[in-house]
Design brief:
63% helix; Fic-like fold; globular; 11 helices
Length: 268
C-alpha cells in the first residue's frame, strides 16, 4: 500500500479547491493508519487456524458492540454464548437473541463480498434481510414505506417515497468517490450518507456499520469496532455531520487506528 504522504500530496496538487482543507489532524491519523497497516501486512497472509480464530473474534466483538449501540442488552460474553453455543440467556428478551443471530449471518455475508468492488443495492437489501428476517420478515430487506423519526436528532430523514431514488443516486456516485477518497474517508462517508437516507424501518445503524467495514476490508484494512461506552461521542459526531463531517471522519479514523493497535496486540 502506498504511503499516505504521497497520496495526500497528490490530492492537494490535483484537487485544489476540493480537498485541500482536510484538517491536518485527520491527515496525521490516516498516515498513522497506513503505517500501522504496513506493520500488520508483515503477518499476512494469515494461515489457519489463526484466520478462523480472528474472524470469530471479530464476529463476537462487532455483533456485540453494534447491537449494544442500539440498546441490545446482551453482554459480550452472553453474545458469545448465543452465537457459539446456541444457548439462550435467561432473563434477556428474545429479540436480543434474534438480533445477535441475525447480525452474525449478515457478518458472514459481508465477508463473502470482501473481494468485490464496493457493493450493490441488492447487497444492501440482503444484509438487511439477513439481520432483520428473524425479527420482522415482512420488513426485512425491503425499503420502508412509512415515515420514521430519529430519536434525539434535530434533522428529519427523507420521506419514504424518496428512498429508492436517493439510494440509486448514492450508489451511482460511489465509484467516483472511491477514486477520490482515502478508504477510511470513504468508509466514514458511506456510513454517514447511508444513515442520512435511512432506507429501512429499523436496523439502519447496524447495516451502516457493516457497510463501513465492508469498504475497509475490501481496501485491505481491518474491521472497525465502536465500543458502546463511547456511544455519545459516536452519535454526537454523526449529528454534526449534517453540516460538517470533519468530526465524524476523525471519529471513524480514530476507531480504525485503535482496532489496528488491538489487532497487533493479538498477533504478537
Amino acid at each position: 500500500m502506498s504511503g499516505y504522504k504521497v497520496y495526500i500530496e497528490y490530492r492537494i496538487d490535483q484537487q485544489m479547491g476540493v480537498d485541500e482543507y482536510m484538517p491536518l489532524e485527520i491527515r496525521d491519523i490516516l498516515a498513522e493508519i497506513d503505517h500501522t497497516c504496513q506493520k500488520i501486512n508483515v503477518y499476512r497472509p494469515f494461515a489457519e487456524p489463526m484466520l478462523s480464530q480472528l474472524k470469530a473474534y471479530y464476529r463476537i466483538g462487532l455483533t456485540y458492540s453494534s447491537n449494544a449501540l442500539e440498546g441490545n442488552s446482551l453482554t459480550e460474553t452472553e453474545t458469545k454464548v448465543v452465537l457459539e453455543d446456541g444457548l439462550t440467556v435467561g432473563g434477556k428478551p428474545l429479540r436480543d437473541h434474534l438480533e445477535a443471530m441475525g447480525h452474525s449471518e449478515a457478518y458472514d455475508f459481508m465477508f463473502s463480498l470482501m473481494h468485490g468492488n464496493l457493493f450493490t443495492e441488492q447487497d444492501i437489501l440482503t444484509l438487511h434481510r439477513m439481520f432483520y428476517s428473524k425479527i420482522d420478515e415482512g420488513q426485512a430487506g425491503r425499503y420502508r414505506r412509512q415515515r420514521v423519526f430519529i430519536s434525539g436528532s434535530q434533522y428529519a430523514v427523507p420521506d419514504w417515497p424518496d428512498v429508492p431514488l436517493l439510494m440509486a443516486k448514492w450508489l451511482q456516485e460511489l465509484p467516483a468517490q472511491k477514486k477520490k477518497l482515502h478508504p477510511v474517508e470513504l468508509a466514514a462517508k458511506v456510513h454517514k450518507d447511508y444513515v442520512f437516507i435511512h432506507p429501512f424501518v429499523d436496523g439502519n445503524g447496524r447495516v451502516a456499520r457493516l457497510l463501513t467495514n465492508l469498504v475497509l476490508i475490501q481496501a485491505g484494512y481491518l474491521l472497525v469496532i465502536i465500543p458502546p461506552i463511547i456511544r455519545a461521542d459516536y452519535i454526537s459526531s454523526l449529528e454534526k455531520a449534517h453540516t460538517d463531517d470533519a468530526d465524524f471522519q476523525r471519529f471513524i479514523a480514530e476507531r480504525v487506528l485503535e482496532t489496528q493497535k488491538d489487532y497487533l496486540r493479538l498477533l504478537k
